[in-house]
Fold:
Amino acid sequence: MKSRYEAAKYVFVDSIDIEDYIDLDTSVSAYTQLSQSIQKPLKMILLFGKPGTGKSILLNRLHTKLKHQRDIYYFETPTTDEKEFFAKLYEIVANQKLPADKEVNFGALVRFCQELRNKRDIVILLDEAQMYSPQIMEKIRLLSDTRSIKFIVSLHKTEDEDLIAKAHFQSRIWEIIELKNATIRDLQTYVHKKLLKKNLFDIANSIHPKAIRLIYRFTQGNFRECNKLMFSLFELCQYYDLHEPSKIRYDKIPLKLIEMAAIKLGYIDV
Amino acid sequence: MYEIKELEQQWKRYKIKQLLPYAIGAIVVTILLGMGGFWYGFVSDTPPSKNHQAVSKSNQNDPSANTLTTQVAQKHIDTLWSPPIGTILSLTPQQPLQESKFSKKANLTTRHNVENVHHMQGGELPVEPINEIPIIQIDEDVGVSTQEFSTPQQPKKKKKLDLHIVATQSGELLQRIEKRFMHTKDSADALFLARRYYELKHYKKAEIWAKRANEINPDLEESWLIFVRSKIKQGHIEEGLRVLRAYVELSGSPKAAALLQRFQKR
Structure:
């Protein structure tokens, strides 16, 4: 026997798939700003925010929306190997694969990019850029100076922001877009829309504003944390639905279960 | 799948922890309210103050002491002290009557009074009990009386003691001042008594005490004016005006002059 909450549980599996993207006020605003910045003659655009604020899914959406209109490429997984990184870059710039036994001559790559100026307008989306080594970041800076490649760099907002504070990068970062945690209203929209997308209307209606306020209290509007909590919540609901249906209400998610999920995830220290 | 039962136990512990401050707060508030109510009830039901008890004790010890109620004033004040004429005259060998420059000029005041005094020698001066004028009036709500002083009483619930000093002291108090004057010969006491008796409309006594004040200190303007007024109030208008004219001539007092003018207009 299947529980109604099983489908709801998988709605909140953490992913950056474009199908899971939800239009919220804040995300729409960030997307608009980002897409407009690409049009400007900028060298680098910095997208930063706390983990779980939706940077990766935003870049993914941008790539998905614009890949048929522009020369835009999404480096989803950061590459720590310099050779591998520039090999990928060579493929984009030269429109051909690098021979297996060859390495990219960085100087030649820079000269080639300079010749591409005004001929091509390449946009590279770099996710989790804090994982790249300083040497790679320096070379990225030099490539952005050619003005044929525009980099959109996504970073975690950290205490130690010396990468951004370095003078040679500051002069090149022409636009900074910060993503923050969702508001309580946005979180409510996020949860409801996620469930409605999968046609789970009853379950979406059973999550009342009081439950949303409690969820917000534990997650502080962070999408990743919200996904985790909702997944655990529906896991508990699934259990009670199957084994102790008297303890669950179908018209209203009990706050007790939200608190139990929070205890399980460590949001509440008992 | 994690242990649901264990999770439920943890949730119960969490709820107890969460509600504990509220429970403690509610208990504290209840205790404070209880203490507040107890204090309020206790304070409002306290017995009479120590001051009252001290007064009652002192009153009990001193039979002539004044109580503080109108009823007591009416009961106990039946005579106003006034020294017998003989007493007055017996004092004069030590301190003969001083004929002030004003009394010499007036020529009538002292002798007239002495004559009057002699005429009345046979008996005491007329007594006018002060029963229409309260001595010290206390709000009836307080309801403290002499009888109540002697025994512990159920205190009334009103907190405030409202004292209205309406008129002069009782006759017994005036008597005390008069007794004191016999020893001190203080013109201030005499003047005080003259003023007090004048206010009480005992014009004869006011005249006598004003005269005594003049004799001790002829420079007291007020005593002269009280003397004149008392005379006029008793119907001795010509005599009063004569004294006043003499005083105005000698002192040049504008106040006395104004008073003379006022009387002459009438």
Chain B touches chain A through eleven residues (CB under 8 Å).
